[in-house]
Amino acid sequence: MPYGKRFRSRGSLGLSLAAWLFSLLAVSAANAQALGPTFENRPIEVVRLALSGAVPSGPQRVAFEDRVRRALNVYPGSQLHDLMVDFGLGKVKRIPGVASASVNYVDGNTGGVAVEVSVVVGDRPQADPGRVDFPYLLQGDDSLLKLKLTAATLGYANHEAWYGRPQAFVGANPLARGPAGAGWSSFGEAALEGGLQGIGPIGNNVYAYGSLSYLASGSVATDLFVTGPRRHGAIEDAYAGIVTGITGDDGSRLVINLSGGRQPFQIADGMLIRITAANGFDRAALQLNPRWAADSLFLAQARYNTTKFEAFRLAPDELAAIDTHTVIAGANLETGLGTPHQLGLTYLTVPRSDYGWYTTTAQGTRQGLQVADVRYYWTPAIGASGPYAKTELALQWNDRNAFPMRAWGGYVEAGYTFNEALWRPTLSYRLSGFSGDNPATRTYERWDPLLSGGTGEEWVQGLNHYKLFQDTNLIAHRLQAILRPAPQWELVPQAWLFQAQQLNNIGGTTSTLAEHLLGYEVNLTVKYFMSRNVMFQSGLALTVPLSGVSRAVAGTTRPWFSAMSLARISF
Prior knowledge:
- It is a single chain.
- The chain is mostly beta strands.
- It is built from seven helices and 24 strands.
- The strands form three sheets. It has an 18-stranded antiparallel barrel.
- Strand 2 and strand 3 form a beta hairpin.
- Helix 3 packs across helix 4.
- The chain is globular.
- The N terminus is likely disordered.
């Protein structure tokens, strides 16, 4: 890798180690891409209730809808948990006058999940009292035991991966064994997860719940880092919890939830924490990204009406070869959930980590990092036509490090949903920025991306570009449209422009940048939600390097094109 004269003047301590680190950070960037919407743990944007059949009218309809919503117990602003949705759906089916009920998930207008509940009102069909429908093993008035089953497969093709120069970007990575590069390359991936989930009463309005599953994954051919077949299997879910709540006569709700074990976790839209498990390499399934559960997560949550508080301590499930033994603890407060004005405050600390921060003259670690985050969402027309705006700003500092650390990151986003127009488009612009390190100062200013990531609509900023430049030392402009040509179809075209905050990029795949312009990307994602349980997704992306990258590496860089298609079945 080239190193600029600007950095040679500061010495050469740790250059070989830093070069190795640069490529390993590209590993975490690629790992953080989740292809296909994983709805578990994402914020619920809206709950839509559709009644059909012998629907009552007037006050009787209002009372009936209220009873359905209370039985379902799924509300905007909460995070989606499939087990709890199934539990609530079972209660809805037992309401007198409900002939049948079903639920579906789709992407929301502003980054969350829309939960669509369909209820047929009428006489319930005569059923075998001993019959339990798949995937349920046991379903009572107050209990549920079900199979957790997920199967997914993916095909992926690249042309000129790593801009056709893999040696320049991942050549120093000892885990990269035959990466994709010049010309065409393709690979296939698959994953299968099976297990049990359940919830049942252990006291007066106190329920215990849990999940245990095993996940097997495999890859063939040449992915972004490795050539050859791989397979891996390990425990995925292994958690248990207790939940209790009180609903007052006036409709006020208090819910307390305590849990611990191997489970996923997310804060808000995932700018700080979204990806709590790694994939790829010996675990296979780099792009399918089937693993989400942290090594351990201890979580205490309390929600009163539209306000939620949570305290947590988590250790992400990292690749064994680059396990940094990171532990993140913190507290999160959100108020106005499900209302037009939502405010969030988060404080994080890292009591333990070997994750390295490097300059050419010093070495530090993430241990001791502290983060303060504030965010505000304005969504006056959730589920309908109208504008919305979101913003978030976070500050990072660490005074326990070998050098003082101060960094910042955040974004502003504005959009408009045209719910009555053809294809019901949501159009938006987002400007995000994450600081880089100025080598002229003693303070280290490079933003630590922690566990940021997700889908292309979340914090994977560029389907190809994100593999080269994670969310640090970056300014990203995003134009996005979400188009819905039919109820089950969704098209998401995006246009991106990327710039660097600093030419010093130590800690990235290229240590020194030639200029601030990094590249641009256009991509298109197509999703088909056949049902809550079956979805298909395809995507195309073209990424063009600009002078900041093309003049920083030896040789000619070429545009990177990728195409993918996946199918997922989950119960």
